[in-house]
């Protein structure tokens, strides 16, 4: 009983005040999300547009919606209507499309740049060495506002081994911040999930994306 509520409260007690919780909601039911919202969750992270649309019908703007999956170009037009932040901008084409679709509805979208911190060929994200050039290239778009970086890091058995990737992403965050580019505000560093959020926070994350520790185990990934 009240398993989700207890989990959310436990996490809020533990998180430092400056750290923002995003409830990662893939595969969950709207009722589960509502329990989390009632327990104080303010931001829901969604990997899939269609799931988000279902939940949004019920929950609407009681929370902020962050897109945390891989966003396909043909989904952008619908996505920009629901989402308050897109954490996974990983190509100029995507940034351009978000800019265009937001322009049509007179919205300015907050975005994070996804960094492929372990340079894994099968993963999405901008390579660390390309990040500065990428930010310079997309910061000219008027309907997006760069707010920071996000990284997943590699899937490692021991989350302690994520430290170097998180550290490198934090360094990159500070580097880009120091450039003081117009239209770029480095406010959020989104690193860490259920198994790794403590490591993320100790390496400088101020936003964590937590699913399993709120909602319980997932049956199918
Ligand atoms: C699923 C997911 C999370 C949360 O992972 P958990 O292990 O459930 O905490 C965080 N970020 C992204 C991008 C995800 O897809």
Give the helices and strands, then pairings.
Elements: H1 3-14, E1 20-24, H2 30-38, E2 43-46, H3 49-59, E3 64-67, H4 76-82, E4 85-89, H5 92-104, E5 109-115, H6 131-138, E6 144-151, H7 163-179, E7 184-191, H8 197-202, E8 207-210, H9 212-215
Parallel strand pairs: 1-2, 1-8, 2-3, 3-4, 4-5, 5-6, 6-7
Helix pairs in contact: 4-5
The structure holds pyridoxal-5'-phosphate.
Pyridoxal-5'-phosphate binds next to strand 8 and helix 9.
* Distance separating the two termini: 24 Å
DSSP summary: helix tally = 9
- The side-by-side strand order for the widest beta sheet comes to 7-6-5-4-3-2-1-8
Rounded mean pLDDT is 97
- The fraction of residues in strands falls at 15-25%
What oligomeric assembly is this protein in? single chain
**What class, by secondary structure content?**
alpha/beta
Count the beta strands: 8
Runs with pLDDT <50, length 5+?
Answer: none
List the secondary-structure elements in sequence, H or E. Answer: HEHEHEHEHEHEHEHEH
The small molecules bound here are:
pyridoxal-5'-phosphate
Shape: globular
Major β-sheet annotation:
8 strands, parallel
Rg, Å, rounded: 17 Å
Q: Portion of residues in helices?
A: 25-40%
Could you explain the architecture of this structure?
Helices cover 39% and strands 20% of the residues. It is built from nine helices and eight strands. The protein is globular and about 45 Å long. Helix 6 links the parallel strand 5 (109-115) and strand 6. Helix 4 (76-82) packs across helix 5. The mean pLDDT is 97. Pyridoxal-5'-phosphate is lined by residues 24, 26, 47, 68, 152, 193-194, 209-213.
